[in-house]
Amino acid sequence: MTDSPSANGAAPAKTGSRVRMSAAQRREQLIAIGRELFAERGFDATSIEEVAARAKVSKPVVYEHFGGKEGLYAVVVDREVRALLDRITNALTAGHPRELLEQAALALLDYIESETAGFRVLVRESPLMSATGNFSSVMNDVAHQVEHILGAEFKTRGYDPKLAELYSQALVGMVALTGRWWLEVRKPRKDTVAAHLVNLAWNGLSHLEAKPVLLTRRAK
């Protein structure tokens, strides 16, 4: 006999227990929920009780997978760090230094736009942030990549290559802080923000272009 609508037209309630998740599926679910909560509220305001409630499991299940809130947070942050670094590294494909700067700026803004929750997790301060797992450390890794780009350019232009590290930190810091601001206002458009960032970085205040355009987007 097949199920039929009840007299009031509502579908019949499903019977039986929920489909059980595998350990790997449950772990991924908890990580996703933890990511959302840490992004919304930060580490201190998030509790294991909330994570368990959203996942519809008991607290011991969360402890079994991560040992506690600190363990869950560490996994979430580590994943976001690797995701951001991979995105920026994979974006650096151009040959010209200015285009490389454009690609790096766009990669960060793309991450902010598409992985907003992850970015919020990274930029929120936490007492657990270690020297290898916070937003500053991620940006420092990015700066080291930019440093190699600037170092080669400095040599060809007769500048002191030892200053490449200083300039890379300044450039990446500028993009990162602008990204945090843009996360909230979301205007102007992403390409426009990237174009102006590169305009300032590449031309300097004394040679700003009135209407900068991304070289990597002109052909599109």
From TrEMBL:
HTH tetR-type domain location: 24-84
Record flagged with keyword DNA-binding: yes
The entry's DNA-binding region: 47-66
Keyword RNA-binding attached: no
Keyword tags: DNA-binding, Transcription, Transcription regulation
GO molecular function, one term: transcription cis-regulatory region binding
A GO BP entry: negative regulation of DNA-templated transcription
Pfam assignment, any one: TetR_N
Region listing for Disordered, in residue ranges: 1-22
Signal peptide (residue range): none
Protein name (record): TetR family transcriptional regulator
Organism this protein belongs to: Phytohabitans flavus
Lineage, highest ranks first: Bacteria, Bacillati, Actinomycetota, Actinomycetes, Micromonosporales
